[in-house]
Amino acid sequence: MINKLISNIQKTNAPIVVGLDPMLNYVPEHIQKKSFAEYGETLEGAADAIWQFNKEIVDATYDLIPAVKPQIAMYEQFGVEGLKAFQKTVDYCHEKGLVVIGDVKRGDIGSTSAAYAVGHLGKVQVGNTICQAFNEDFATVNPYLGTDGIKPFVDICKEEKKGLFILVKTSNPSSGEFQDRIIDGRPLYEWVGEKVAEWGADHMGDSYSYIGAVVGATYPEMGKVLRKVMPKSYILVPGYGAQGGKGADLVHFFNEDGLGAIVNSSRGIIAAYKQEKYAKFGAEHFAEASRAAVIDMVEDISTALERAK
Ligand SMILES: O=C(O)c1cc(=O)[nH]c(=O)n1[C@@H]1O[C@H](COP(=O)(O)O)[C@@H](O)[C@H]1O
C-alpha cells in the first residue's frame, strides 16, 4: 500500500490527504433535511447525512487527491449507524481508487492490539470462512504501550501489505507535556521516531517503509529533525489549515526526492464553504468549495516546495 500511496501522489502531483471528519454541523441543511425526512432525527438520520456529505465531497475531489483519512470518532458518535457510514465511506473511496488511512488511533496490550489490527487492516476467521471487516489501507496507532502494542499491527501489515502511521509528535498545543520530555538527553518524540524507523526497517516497500509516522504541521522545527531520524518513513502531517499550518512550514517534512510526507487537512477542506474565501459557492455547492480548497492547498504546498529548492 505504501507503493500505491506513492504512485497516487505522483499521479496527482498532490502530497495531500483529505480528512473526512464529518461533524453534523458541517453538513449543509439541505442534506440534513433530506436525511431526517427519510430516517427522522435519529442516529440513522445523522449517519445518512454524513455519508451523503462525504460522498459528494469524494465525487468532487477524488481525481485531484491520492488519499483520504476518515477519523472514526466522527462516525462513532452516532453509534453503530455511524460505523456503517464509516464502512460505506471506506468502501466508496476504494471504488474511486483512493488510499484510505483509517484514523483510529488504536494501541493496547498485545492481544487487544491484535484484534484491533485484524478489524481494521486484516481478516478475521468466522467458522471456516475468512471475513474482512473495515479494510482500510493504513491505520493510525498510538505507541504509548511500546512494542507489545505495535508489533501485532506490524505483523498484520506484513501479511496484508498494509501500513501504519504511528504518533510521534502530535499537532495539538499540549503535545509537549509528555512528548517533549527530555529522557537521557533527548526528547521523547525523538526516541519514538527512532523506534518507528526500527519497526519499519523490515517492512519496506520499493523506496519507503510501510510503517510511517505522524508529526504535526504545527511543529516544523521538530519535523525537520524527525525527517532525518526516520528517513525511510512516510510522515503524515496533520495540522494544516484549521490548526494554523501553512505550506511554508512543511518543506522540511519532505525528503530531497520530493516524497516522504503527506499533509492532511480536514475542516479546511470539508467545511471550506463556511470560510469567507469560499463563501461564494454557498451551502448548496459545498463540494465545489471543497474542490477549490484542495486546488489551493496543493498550490500552496507545491509553491513552498518549489521555493525551497
Ligand atoms: O493522527 C492524526 O491524524 C492527527 C494527529 C495529530 O497530531 N493531530 C491531528 O489533528 N490529527 C488528526 O488530523 C485531523 C485534523 O483535522 P483539522 O484540524 O480539521 O484539519 C483530525 O482528524 C485529527 O484527529
Describe the structure.
With 309 residues, the chain is an alpha/beta fold. It has twelve helices and twelve strands. It has helices spanning 2-12, 29-39, 43-61, 73-76, 79-95, 110-121, 147-160, 176-179, 188-200, 220-229, 267-270, 286-308; strands at 16-18, 67-68, 99-106, 123-126, 129-132, 138-141, 163-169, 182-183, 186-187, 211-215, 235-237, 261-265. The strands form three sheets. An eight-stranded parallel β-barrel has the order 1-2-3-6-7-10-11-12, surrounded by seven helices. Strands 4-5 form a two-stranded antiparallel sheet. The protein is globular. The two termini are 28 Å apart. The mean pLDDT is 97. The structure holds orotidine-5'-monophosphate. Residues 19, 21, 71, 103, 140, 170-172, 214, 216, 238-239, 241-243, 264-268 line the site of orotidine-5'-monophosphate.
Q: What CATH first level would be assigned?
A: Alpha Beta
- Give the CA-CA distance, first to last residue: 28 Å
Find the structural class using helix and strand composition: alpha/beta
Strand order of the largest sheet: 1-2-3-6-7-10-11-12
Would you tell me which CATH topology applies?
Answer: TIM Barrel
* Uncertain segments: none
EC number: 4.1.1.23
Enzyme class: lyase
Pathway: Pyrimidine metabolism; UMP biosynthesis via de novo pathway; UMP from orotate: step 2/2
Catalytic activity: orotidine 5'-phosphate + H(+) = UMP + CO2
Structural topology:
Elements: H1 2-12, E1 16-18, H2 29-39, H3 43-61, E2 67-68, H4 73-76, H5 79-95, E3 99-106, H6 110-121, E4 123-126, E5 129-132, E6 138-141, H7 147-160, E7 163-169, H8 176-179, E8 182-183, E9 186-187, H9 188-200, E10 211-215, H10 220-229, E11 235-237, E12 261-265, H11 267-270, H12 286-308
Parallel strand pairs: 1-2, 1-12, 2-3, 3-6, 6-7, 7-10, 10-11, 11-12
Antiparallel strand pairs: 4-5, 8-9
Helix pairs in contact: 2-3, 3-5, 3-12, 6-7
InterPro entries: Aldolase_TIM (IPR013785), OMPdecase_type-2 (IPR011995), OMPdeCOase_dom (IPR001754), RibuloseP-bd_barrel (IPR011060)
Active site: 105 (proton donor)
Pfam families: OMPdecase (PF00215)
